[in-house]
Write a structure and sequence with these properties.
There is one protein chain. With 258 residues, the chain is an alpha/beta fold. It has one domain: Alpha-Beta Barrel (TIM Barrel). Helices cover 36% and strands 16% of the residues. Strands 1, 2, 3, 9 and 10 form a five-stranded parallel beta sheet that branches. β2, α3 and β3 form a beta-alpha-beta unit. The longest helix has 23 residues.
Length: 258
């Protein structure tokens, strides 16, 4: 029996697709974890980006304009090439409030009690309404767009991971969904290195992290003497060896755009 040329081509295409399915399945991220990185003091930023590139891992970065070890801030002009490169590589980017603002509570009138860590109101306790919160988040969006030409993803993380429900509801109306992290995903770079050395933190993470967990670390922490960043290399390799893979929060079921 002979087949028309068009039918033969179609059959070849079908069999080719079937043959490639195992390879595509291997390439798919079926057991993801979600690495997130807050700005911090940027001391380890270059080393972390190199580790991510080496392992072909995409992460989600939460941006605030924090003081750096070089005397500037994490969103100043000196960091523009860094953020532009990460954006071109396909990482995701969320909001961490421009002045790294801590949320302390809610007044009876519904205003938020906040305490910026940096900026003109650094270390002052002030009151914000929804418009002021949205304005603070818009500062990060405007600066990121200025540096990269791209928009932030509709995600935010309150400094310290804590904010009252009212703040989260306001932020959602501003266009940002709050992101925390899994208990096992706390990578411990904020802890004293004297009591929580890298090897101990690494072993704990490799033992406890499971598929679906959101992981959290920083691009540099002032208080830590022994930087955690070098441990990302064996951590990523070890989690991959366990059959886990890495995705950005754009692919997380709770944060995908509707």
């Amino acid at each position: 029996m002979t087949y028309p040329v068009c039918g033969l081509k179609a059959a070849v295409a079908v069999f080719t697709a079937i043959a490639l399915m195992p390879l595509q399945a291997l390439a798919a991220c079926r057991n993801p974890v979600y690495l997130t990185l807050d700005t911090g003091n940027m001391r380890e930023a270059q080393r972390i980006s190199a580790i991510l590139e080496q392992h072909e891992v995409k992460a989600t970065f939460f941006l605030a304009n924090e003081k750096t070890t070089t005397g500037g801030t994490s969103l100043d002009d000196s960091w523009q090439p860094y953020w532009r490169k990460l954006q071109a590589q396909g990482h995701a980017f969320g909001n961490h409030t421009f002045d790294h603002v801590y949320f302390r509570g809610v007044d009876a009138d519904g205003r938020l009690t906040v305490r910026p860590q940096f900026g003109a109101q650094a270390s002052q306790t002030v009151k914000w309404d929804e418009a002021q919160l949205c304005g603070e988040m818009q500062r990060v969006q405007a600066r990121f767009q200025q540096m990269t030409g791209a928009s932030l993803d509709p995600l935010w993380r309150a400094p310290g991971g804590k904010a009252p429900p009212a703040a989260m509801q306001m932020a959602r109306r501003c266009g940002y969904a709050h992101v925390h992290w899994a208990a096992a995903g706390f990578l411990g770079d904020e802890l004293p290195s004297e009591t929580h050395p890298n090897d101990k933190l690494l072993a704990q993470a490799l033992k406890d992290i499971r598929a679906g967990d959101i992981l959290m670390a920083h691009l540099g922490i002032w208080s830590r003497k022994d930087p955690y960043a070098p441990m990302l290399d064996p951590l990523i390799a070890g989690l991959k060896a366990r059959g886990l893979c890495f995705a950005t929060l754009r692919d997380h079921p709770a944060y995908q755009k509707k």
